[in-house]
Amino acid sequence: VLALLIGFVVGSKFSSIFSAEGVSAGSDKFNEVLNLTKKHYYKDISTNELVDDAIVGMLESLDPHSVYIPPVEQEAIAEQFKGNFDGIGIEFQILEDTITVVTPIVGGPSEAVGIFAGDRIVEIEKKNCVGFDNQQVLKNLRGDRGTKVKLKIYRPFGSKLIDFTIVRDQIPLHTVEASILVSDSVGYVSLSKFTDTSTLEVKDALSKLAKIGMKKVILDLRNNPGGYLKQAHQIADLFIDSTKMIVYTKEKNDAPGDEYKAEKDYHYENMPLVVLINKGSASASEIVSGAIQDWDRGLIVGETSFGKGLVQRPFTLPDKSAVRLTIAKYFTPLGRAIQRSYKNRDDYYVEVHDRVEEEGENFAHNAELDSTKKVFYTKSGKKVLGGGGITPDYIVVNNELTDFSIKLRSNNIFYEFIRKYLDANGNKTKIVKNYNNDFLKFKDNFSLTEKELGNFVKFVISNNITFDKNEFNHDKKYIKQRLKAHIAREFWQNNGWYAVLLKEDKQFTKAHELIRKINR
């Protein structure tokens, strides 16, 4: 039985496509045009480029999610969804031509030998690596498990050079970005995508939170673009009981496809649940949130999701490129189709960005203005609609950032400033001394001073970004929180980062408020 996959996946041979009736005549016609172009066109042109462009053009006439993926991109996608790679285990950025460790990956070989956030890699295998670009860094640091690599590292807060020998290992690509107990009984889990390892990661996160008192769950699927259908099915199964339907598909000409039902019993099926979604929640995220909503299993909070309800299967070509073709459509347990209309392809992605929603309670689902959407009713009698994503039970739109803050983020100004801040004047040492690895103390008490914010403004101007006082004051609370979050990430990784940012997150705040009122 072929696994139906949502999003990016690694597939099977492409050659079987050409057995379809009528394809032979079409391929003869294509080859004739290709040969004529190669022979008579007034400029030299690459055959591979012509073929690639032709494939792209052919798929553009189908749906927005049937696409061609070049070899290099396909390799990167396969790695992402496999859930691991071989290397030394660091997240890095190149700052002022130097490889800067953002954080060592927890449990990886770099953390094991004592590499810290903020370390600068200046030599790899006795070769100066200052000036390397991202691809050169990856080429030199990645390698087969068990192989060694020698690094020379400059540590700013100690002002010294240190030699390290690291044995490369398999490095996990985590999809659970944070798992935190945000209050006495409420656990928060953020999932970034649905890959091979996602179900195990979510199970592990929930288990650890349950052991320290979690009795209610907030599952954050915001900006989660999807992934494997199997993982969506298994993660939904953690919260849905008995053998209830989670998702089913219809194939060519509406032929019945596969059905995915709840299979196992879990402790979390009886816990109050809120799922956070937004415009960036798509495909597998919509499967999970749609099933939760259809079964009245929990509350959905945030913004209407993307609206991608088509199932793709990838076919790998001989040159390691791939085509990802839509082979089916999926439906929520009530029979809701999630896919939005794509008749006007030019507006397909723009429509999501420009979508305006009225905030507030939407349990009766009267906020949806599109009368063409089909109406469905849950067991409790709640109205829900199909044909355009999952609309929340409570609509909350996070505050829009000004152009000034958007420019700061896009130019990496927040991180670069905090990197300098922690490297200078013993600030990193002071934080270690004052908070002694006590995150709650840091979260409740640390704040950048007005003088330090003034230094941030000077840093912004020094990076040729026009300072807008009005926009700075409008976003001041956000700016302070984001700077603080970067410091938190330095010491407490992603859990620290999220715990700080959630404090100024309207959608999370509403989810937390609603779930605390549920007594069960």
Euclidean distance between termini CA atoms: 40 Å
Low-pLDDT ranges? 1-19
Helical content band: 25-40%
Largest sheet geometry: 7 strands, mixed
Provide the structure class: alpha+beta
Shape: globular
Mean pLDDT figure: 90
* Beta-strand content estimate: 15-25%
Compute the number of helices: 17
Q: Round the Cα radius of gyration to an integer and report it.
A: 25 Å
Strand order of the largest sheet: 11-12-13-16-17-23-20
Number of strands: 23
Q: Describe it for me?
A:
- This protein is α+β, with helices and mostly antiparallel strands and 520 residues long.
- It contains 17 helices and 23 strands.
- It has helices at residues 23-40, 47-60, 71-82, 109-113, 134-141, 198-211, 229-237, 284-294, 348-354, 403-410, 413-423, 427-435, 439-445, 450-462, 469-474, 476-501, 506-516; strands at 12-13, 67-69, 84-87, 90-95, 98-104, 120-124, 127-128, 148-155, 160-167, 169-172, 176-181, 186-191, 216-220, 245-250, 256-261, 273-277, 299-302, 310-316, 322-331, 360-361, 375-377, 383-385, 394-395.
- The strands form 5 sheets. It has a 7-stranded mixed β-sheet, sandwiched between helices. Strands 1, 2, 14, 15, 18 and 19 form a 6-stranded mixed β-sheet that branches. Strands 4, 5, 6, 7, 8 and 9 form a 6-stranded antiparallel β-sheet that branches.
- It is globular.
- The two termini are 40 Å apart.
- Mean pLDDT is 90; it is low at 1-19.
